[in-house]
């Protein structure tokens, strides 16, 4: 902040937060990834989430720039490969307008996650492997949006800075929930004739309802729902433990449903940190 800069004052509880209304200097990082060819994109994803605006990657001859660019476009909103010379690849954030879309995109993550859950259940009921594959496209969209929200929290902070960690944890867990359905769908598609009995389908419905209940709670606090989610989680886990011993349903499905249930409950702790 320099003399003469305009500032924005906001009040957060007992604190007055001063922000300069000036164009931020871009954060730039240089990284040598020549020895980690298999994990280049994971490194880049971590850099993206950390909030850097420009990345200069030193890459090896084995790194496919075409594949890297495709992964960037698919998973890291705003990042683009803007230059490549020799063994240097330059990536920049070229989209500034997305910064104001955090709340909209966070809600979309919730809605996409619930859609993945419901579509998976419907595909299992219909024994339609094609519909299971369709959910994988939605899961990639969820990853893309989660990456964006995590970046914005690290770079700009949440609208209430005291809640940064809580919101970040919720976004992180939502991505992991989608992953559970992805693993389930890939397993069912690969292994033909997976057994799913009516008790498992009923359990699936309850897990999806638990996820929906948390979504509703996130946007409108309800002490009764807090208690109901906690109670339902115990009952679902108890049912999962019983179904693990069943010979008429695949334990892998129960495993993933159990994981989703626990992840929803994990988000409850973070949510309560945002509610007050």
Would you kindly provide a written description of the structure presented here, covering whatever features stand out?
With 276 residues, the chain is an alpha+beta fold. It folds into two domains: 28-95, Translation Initiation Factor IF3, CATH 3.30.110; 98-274, Phosphate transport system protein phou homolog 2, domain 2 (Methane Monooxygenase Hydroxylase, Chain G, domain 1), CATH 1.20.58. The chain is built from eight helices and six strands; from the N terminus they run βββαβαββαααααα. The strands form two sheets. Strands 3-4-6-5 form a four-stranded mixed beta sheet, covered by helices on one side. Strand 3, helix 1 (40-50) and strand 4 form a beta-alpha-beta unit. Helix 3 (102-126) runs antiparallel to helix 4 (129-155) and helix 3 runs parallel beside helix 5 (164-190). The protein is flat. The mean pLDDT is 90.
Short synopsis of the structure:
The chain has helices at residues 40-50, 65-75, 102-126, 129-155, 164-190, 198-219, 223-243, 251-274, and strands spanning 7-12, 15-20, 28-32, 54-58, 79-85, 88-93. It is of the alpha+beta class. The longest helix is centred in the middle third of the chain and has 27 residues, at 129-155.
